[in-house]
Structures are given as C-alpha cells and as structure tokens.
Amino acid sequence: MKVGIIQQHNTPSPIENRRRLADKIARLAEDGAELVVLQELHDSLYFCQVESVDNFDLALAIPGETTDFYAEVAGRCGVVLVTSLFERRAPGLYHNTSVVFEKDGSIAGKYRKMHIPDDPAYYEKFYFTPGDLGFTPIDTSVGRLGVLVCWDQWYPEAARLMAMAGAEMLIYPTAIGWESSDTDAEKERQREAWITVQRGHAVANGIPVITVNRVGHEPDPSGMTGGIQFWGSSFVAGPQGEFIYRASDKDETLAIVDVDLMRSEQVRRWWPFLRDRRIENYGNITRRFIDD
To answer: Catalytic residue among 103, 124, 150, 179, which?
Structure first.
C-alpha cells in the first residue's frame, strides 16, 4: 500500500492551511497514494500553548462544514484520508478527534483522543475531554486502521488494544516538539524516546506504525516561553520496528511510502507475542498503581 505523509508548518489561517493541505493531498494522489495521513490539529496553529476560552471558537461540528471540505478532497482525489480536528460536541464539551474519510468522501469512522496531556506549553486538559469511543479500529478500503492521536503514542495499552481488535497498522497524527529552554542533549533524548516507544509498539504488536508530526516554530501567544519548535521527524516503521521512512526534523515533507501489510502475517508467525500472552495474570494492569 502506498501511504502519503504530509509534514507541514502551519499558519494562523485555517482557510490557508486547508488550501495547502488540499493541494498536497492532490499531488500525493496523482503519484499513487492510497492512504494520506495528516498531522494533529492541522487546521490551525497549536493553540494549546495557552489556556484561553477564546480558542474554543476554533472548534467545529462533526459532521459540518470542515468535514464536508475534507470529504470533498478525499472523494475527488480517491484516497482514504486521516484528519485531526478540534471537535465541538456540545457547548462546553470538546474533543481532539481524528476523522477518517473513505475514498468516496464518506466518513469511515472517528476516534477521540483518550490520553490528554497537561504539561507546560501543552495545556490540552483545558480544552479536550477524554475520548469515549474506545480503542476501536476503523475499517476502510485500504485496511483496518488503528488510529490514535499524539499523547496516546506513549501508552502500550492503547496500541495493544487496537492490535487485539484487529488493527492492521497504528496511525498517530502528532504535534510534539522542543521547548526553547531545554539543552540540546535533552532535546535529543526526548525525540529519540518518542521514536523508540512507537517502534516498540510496532515490534510488540507485529504491525506497522505511521506517525505524522508537524514541523517548524510556533510562538507562545502569551510570551511566557520561547514557543515550541515542532521536531517533525515523521516516520513509518515496519512490524519489526524497522525504519521504512524518516522525515527531516526541520523541513516540510511530502512523501509516499510503500507499506507491505502482508509482512505482518509472517512476522507474527516468527514472533507470536499474542499467542504467548499470559492474560490470566494481567488483572492488575487496570489498577493505577500496585501499592500492596
């Protein structure tokens, strides 16, 4: 399968961001992409650097005008499209939601981000309610997609549950980067940890991982920090964690990556981790911490 990746530096204008994405999706489709994956919250700048009620104005109804736009692009280009949107579910109730469109423009399914961070410059708990759709893969014409979002990528439980439900690949739209006060050594440790944990999900579950991150510097509107330098580094890993593709940590990227879904079958025969799980002994995994 040919997977299209768009690693982009966003502007403050949702209309401009959508226009640029539509042009790039069309270019990837012309070059044979069957599945196109976008980065997290690609309609705007990453607004979670500050806590401001005014930013709720960026949220949108699903379905609605914005999903109609991406549905038209997916249908016109004939691709399965993975998007990441700020969902207004009801007044005072908002989600970080990935909507997947089928090749005919219909909505194949959606996933609401489950793990919500609350760190300096990533004040997402102010904006997003944790998802309530479970870890359920989305069936499409190119396969069963285990779509998760950004902070979800640190949790092996999320990846495992998607794999156990039959996901043929894990997909992570992402917005992560460096804070300016970190040392160069610390920045490198953070980025490598981010890559390593996701490659581990590929290995542990015997399926490919597709991660698409934003890139470039976005200032802190409050002026309290130096903003975020999003580190790009979008990548595709195979079912043994092997790199199939790695993007730059500085530049916008438009790429098509060949992913062999049939390889997972053979890898799982060599390494039958699902067979050898001792599920009768895992009851404590649902506890917050084992104190006794």
So the answer is: 150
Q: Rounded to whole angstroms, how far apart are CA atoms 79 and 238?
A: 22
> Does residue 40 have an active-site annotation?
yes
From 24, 103, 110, 113, active-site residue: 113
31-44 pLDDT tens trace: 999 999 999 999 99
What does the pLDDT look like over 99-134, one tens digit per residue? 999 999 999 999 999 999 998 899 999 999 999 999
Contact by Cβ (8 Å): 190, 182: yes
CA nearest to 130, candidates 160, 89, 186: 89
State pLDDT tens for residues 220-267. Answer: 999 888 999 999 999 999 999 999 999 999 999 999 999 999 999 999
CA distance 120 to 134: 27
Confirm whether 188 is a catalytic residue: no
- 113 tagged catalytic: yes
Closest CA to 160 of 173, 151, 148, 150: 148
Strand extents, DSSP E, the chain = 2-7, 35-37, 80-82, 85-90, 93-101, 107-112, 118-119, 122-123, 138-140, 143-147, 169-174, 177-179, 209-213, 215-218, 228-231, 235-237, 243-246, 253-258
Residue 179: is its pLDDT beyond 90?
no
CA distance 50 to 81: 29
| Cis peptide bond prior to 63, omega within 30° of 0 | yes
User: Which segments of the chain does DSSP mark as H helices, in order?
Assistant: 14-30, 65-77, 156-164, 184-205, 263-270
Q: Which two tokens stand for residue 150?
A: 């950004």
Distance CA(109)–CA(45), nearest Å, equals 25
